[in-house]
Amino acid sequence: MVKYIRQRKQSTDDWFQSVVNNGLGFLKSSISNLDKSPRNSIIDLYTAIELFFKARLMKEHWSLILSKPEDANKDKFENGDFHSVYLEQAEKRLKNICGEKFKKEAIENFKVLNEHRNQIVHFAHTDFSGSESDVVIEHWASWFFLHDLITNQWVDVFHEFQDKIDVIHKQVIKNRGFLEAKYHAVTSKIKIEVKKGSEIISCTSCEFESGVVIKSNVWGKDFECLVCNVKDLKLIDITTTIPCNYCGIDLSYFLLKKHTCPDCQKEITLEYALEKYTIIYKEDDPEARYDDGVEPIAYCHNCVSDVPTVINIEGLWVCVMCEDRGWTALDCEHCGSFVTGDTETIQYFACHRCEDEVREAFKVEMEEYENKI
Fold first, then answer.
1. Is the dihedral of CA 241, 245, 249, 253 positive or negative?
2. Full domain range(s) for residue 344
3. Is 21 domain-assigned?
């Protein structure tokens, strides 16, 4: 096969930087196109999303970005001579290989955006009008989920790009005027939902009181926003306070967006918050866990931290690191770890800390059994 383009040879780290910068470039283009070329804005936004998924895979291992990792060749990779994965493949590998967990609503949103993109690029789109207001709302919802990923779940992977991401986010927010117009347009629908008995809450994305609650759980509420179309889970607020370790003011750590003291602007570290909330937990339940001095802290299956970060506050098991909540904490019968997660999976199979070991043992056992037959 004839190659018409030859890439400059780069190291794995250089390629990672190139992919991220390419993604940032498409994000900037997507925002600038909102006014003059709405359809191109959608195309550029989806391209950026796919590039960030690829970059996350590359950070785990360069071969994971290849469509066929079994044919991996380092020299070819460094020369850019390979076919890379699509978003759906990248998502699957991040789940199965890296243990990543994604919001169902986020993945569904990305897939819908991809359908818009495919219709626009490969044929023609009859339903999507491409008008500026429609594109802004579509753009807002997809950017909300991508921004959440790269500034929270993937913040360690893209930490050196956070300043550039913040600049882009500020540009996106400038289009809030379209959402305000939409909010006024759907006010009557919101009133109808209220009369029907529906609960309306503040949207986690656009922050308007326009989220129709679909399902309520002890840990939060699933909702769909009538303004920006975002479907998300709004976690129940944890209001228990701890003192700032600098100025002493009482603050609700779980309600702080950037975990900085609103009074002195100093950072409230994870370690400090965990220490203080553990003390509160022990005071509320002096016999928590065991009498032999074992800390009443569980390992989180969501952020899979190497240290236990989950404590019980206000009747909920809450991870101080990723703030996931509502799961049951129990002892794993296989490794003895105190963990959160699906109860039946832990009891009848394994927890997230020992599942690889248990799976491997099961594999060996099956092979021995088959050899005896």
1. negative
2. 242-357
3. yes
